[in-house]
Amino acid sequence: MENYKIYCNLKSELKRKKQLLADLQQKPTNKEDLISLEIDIEEDMNALNIVFNHLILNHNTLPSVEMR
Fold it and tell me: Could you tell me the pTM of the whole model?
């Protein structure tokens, strides 16, 4: 459950950063700031994929419980 919370937090942070990037691209901005934000977004996407894969692997490896 904790991994799912981490996943949700990362997903919302990524959405916020993507919106910020879109806003910054619409107006004159320091190119270094844009590059830095793009790198942050890429790192967040990688982290999101890692957590997602971990959630999927944990879900698939849980022992099945037979209902009687």
Answer: 0.69
